[in-house]
Protein 1
Amino acid sequence: MTTTPVAERTTSTPRRQGDRIFSGLSRGAGLFILVALLGVFVFLAIEGIPGLTQPASFYAPNATTFLGYVGPLLFGTILAAVIAVVVAAPLAFGIALVISHYAPKSIAVPAAYVIDLLAAVPSVVFGLWGINVLALKLAPIYGWLAEHASWIPFFAGPASVTGRTILTAGIVLAIMILPIITAISREIFAQTPRLHQEAALALGATRWEMIRLTVFPYARSGMVSATMLGLGRALGETMAVAMVLSVGGGVTFNLISSSNPASIASNIASNYKEGTPGKVAVLIATGLVLFLVTFLVNFGARWLVGRSERKMNR
């Protein structure tokens, strides 16, 4: 008996109106962000490029060229941000692990709310706390470090009697970026497949071994993204650094002295209001440098995350 093949009828399900609206809104939101970033870059480029070739008097008293002017500012920006990340990242990962895997729910939920509330505190409040509380508490510690650990270049001294150093600014920044890194890491840790964790425990792994072998590999890309987001916040922070830091100029790795390099953002905030048109152009040019550095940091983070994901998928 022969059978006649019947042509299968393929019907395409029409897209619902809600799907089309959501797709259009999503594309529009993505394009809006790109256009906004492009607009910021164009503004900084147009207004800041004249600041690259101003007379030497506009870069005084610490420099005669734009590179000599922006170099110490860029150094101070990166140094304060690196201190913040070094202090905040391990603490944030530990807090996220306690909330997601160790603490009971009755403690984990309130702790998560408290950490998230830190992100709502204005930066000026952190600045006031840094000046009036943290700097005064750290000043005796800086004196002790200068006396007993001056052989380490970071603590060479002489110690600042006010405590308003680049290290204090870095610690304040660390507290400010702590909720960002913690919140993202907490969600990533909680999304680790339950079967992977139970399989590790069933094979005799301790809780820490289970976290090291299942949670960290799964969450590695998310941890890098969280850290880079915190670094981006630290790079662009203005008021807290401007209020806490006692600027002395120059490039130094001495973290406890009064000779502190300023950051780009704090320098703009401190000098923009009284600036002449030429000086304003120089300040906007430094803002362009900060914009490019932040872009490169985020681009590098995305590259690292993509590379990690590709290795895991092999």
Protein 2
Amino acid sequence: MPQRQLGPFQVSAIGLGCMNLSHAYGQPPSFEAAKALLERALDQGVTLFDTAALYGFGANEKLVGQVLGPHRQRITLCSKGGMTGQPTGANGALQRVIDGRPESLRRDVEASLQRLGTDVIDLYYLHRWDKQVPIEDSVGEMARLVQEGKVRTLGLSEVSAATLRRAHAVHPITALQTEYSLWTRNPEIAVLDACRALGVAFVAFSPVARGYLTDRVLDVAHFDAKDIRRAMPRFLPGNYAANLALLETVKAVGAEAGASVAQVALAWLLHRGPDILPIPGTTSLAHLDDNLGAAAVTLSPEQMARLEAAFAPGAVQGTRYNSATQAEIDTEEFAG
């Protein structure tokens, strides 16, 4: 597995987003199946593992800690706080809450350390900027967590270039994480340039577009009731059907390169710059192997240009989030 730099850490060029194993896309796999996938990733050379307090309301951190704990010195462990499950629902049911107050972030990191079974988190992200709290206050508390040795480096998720600069002025930001793929190119508006100017690594989540950039046609009309894609405009049946036509260029490039659709999508990201680290997630061992194979795929400048032309801003039908979720984030967005 080729290596890339993530702040002070040398990590696998392709990491693993662990969310799918506990959260977001319907019924999660059994513990045994999730354990097998994490161990397979480790055996295949993956050293960058990404989780969060939100995923499964803590269950994903427990899973990652239990399975990867014996291999702690071999991996770079990343987690997130500031958006967690809190007992605010009926009868104390857990609900997703964005809370970036200093005292809440301290609570979050302490809980994450316990669930992960470690005394330090290598890279700790602010999962969402709480717009009721100045970013300087949230990052200031996170900086104190670094000073106390609870976390080694800091990251931000789903923030704009301006917010990144404000945060970086308080404490060096090691990585910025947001969605980036052929069909979500918003980071190219301003964030990628800001990251490069500040020496911040860019971590691309959902790099195969939540299953769109694969060889499998999704049954979007019958997603599981708990599948978060049900609320995403791009996956509405009409929009999804229109978006499928864009895949013809990816398939053609894949045929030329001897690569799957997902491998072309991931190779495109890797070719976009040595500072970009995709973290695809999956529950399938076969898909894991396929994703990791992208590190060996070479795309020509002409193939890169064809892919980018096919997915030019405005080509994709539907926004990536609905209006309620979009209001929670702080990123520059192309119109959808």
